[in-house]
C-alpha cells in the first residue's frame, strides 16, 4: 500500500488525503472542515514523533511501543474512513452545472452527515492519544542531549595571543587584502600552504579574528584527516545559528 510504512503506519498517505478533503472539490458540512484541520495538525505532529521513535527502536520501553502501535492503528482507521467517504461522495462536483451540482449534494447528504459523525469519533481518539503522549512524556524521552565533545588541548593553542610572533603582520595583511577586495565580491577560497610547524593555522586564526566581525555569518572549524561530516556540519551550525542548532539537537535532526 502506497504511503504505508512500519514506522508511521498510513500517516503519509493519510495526510495527503486530508489535504485533498479540505479543497473546494469536497463540500463538507459546517464544522467538519475545522475538525479535519485539527486532525491534520495533530497527525502531522504524531508523524514526526513516530519517525523519532523509529530512530531509537532499541531503546523504546513498552509504554512507547504501545502508544506507537495504537497511533499506527488509528492512522489506518482514519484512512479507511476517508477512503469510504471519498468513494461515496465522488469528485468533480465543481465541474457540474447548478442543477446537477444541487442534485448531487442532495444524493450525498447522508454521506456528509455520516462523515461528520465518524470524524467526531476519530477526533476523540486522536485527542486521547495526544493526551497519552503528554502523560507518558514521549517527546522528552526522545530528546537527545547535546553531546559533550572533548576538545584537543592543542586546539586551544590556536587562540593564544599572537602579538609575539615574528613577521605575522605582513602575511595577515596579504590574506586580508585577498579576502576583502571590494572589486572581487564573490566566493573565495584562500589556501595557506607550507611545511609543518610554520604557523599556518595560527596565521589563519589571526586573519579570522581580524576580519571575522565584518561578516554576518562566520564559523571556524578544525578538520582532521578522518572526516566526520555530520559533526562538522553541526559544529558550523552551532556557530552561525545557535537557535537552529538547539532545534536540531532537541528534534534529533540528521544531516
From TrEMBL:
UniProt protein name: Rx N-terminal domain-containing protein
PANTHER family hit by this protein: NB-ARC DOMAIN-CONTAINING PROTEIN, TRANSLOCASE OF INNER MITOCHONDRIAL MEMBRANE 13 HOMOLOG
Classification via InterPro entries: NB-ARC, P-loop_NTPase, RX-like_CC, Rx_N
GO molecular function, one term: ADP binding
CDD domains: RX-CC_like (cd14798)
Keywords: Coiled coil, Leucine-rich repeat, Nucleotide-binding, Plant defense, Repeat
GO biological process: defense response
Record domain NB-ARC: where: 171-242
Family under the similarity heading: Belongs to the disease resistance NB-LRR family.
Residue ranges constituting the Disease resistance N-terminal domain according to the UniProt record: 10-99
Coiled coil: 36-66
